[in-house]
Amino acid sequence: MRIYTRGGDEGKTALIGGERRSKDDVRVEAYGSVDEAGAAIGVAMSYLDEKRDADIHEILQGTVQRLWDVGADLAAPNGAKGYSFRTPDDAASSLEPYIDKYQEESARLTKFILRGGSKASSALHLACTVVRRAERRTVALMKVEPIHMPALRYLNRLSDLLFVLARAQNAREDVPDVPYTNSTDVFRG
After folding, report:
1. Which tens digit of pLDDT belongs to each residue from 5-36?
2. Virtual CA dihedral for 177, 159, 52, 40, nearest 10 degrees?
3. Residue 25 carries which DSSP code?
4. Is the pTM above the cut of 0.90?
5. Domain 20-77+92-106+114-173, what fold?
6. Which of 22, 32, 75, 147 is least enclosed by beta carbons within 10 angstroms?
């Protein structure tokens, strides 16, 4: 298989189903941002300790796999011939037990925090922001074309998970979160 096809040399790319769109089309932006999110998570995974953080690595590996489904769903306009959506309805809710579990590893949050800390935590925070961008791009797409809603819900919940994992990673490495100095108490309960 050749990596280059020359099909995109004029600034267009094929969606699932064969339709060609400009590379800056809102749909291409949405699934391209999902691709970036997967790469950012891959970078974060490279900073995890192989033994201590094997549990987080395994979770992230699953999210990267699921992001390929989300990206495919966004690359397939509704009605794409022969395509069946891949992101299941419960994809977002399947992340919630992990969010609950790993939130317990770090101190109770009352103020906004600065993104950073250990290398692994910083990379997870960055991945979180890339996922949030993918979510914004997907919302922009949703305003002009129908989307598979479980894909959007998954991105929303995944950003929550990555934020919690970043904080848990700092706790594991005994690196304190740094509060945003101008933050009032924003988290209660």
Report:
1. 888 888 999 999 999 999 999 999 999 999 99
2. -100
3. S
4. yes
5. Hypothetical Protein Ta1238; Chain: A; (1.20.1200)
6. 22
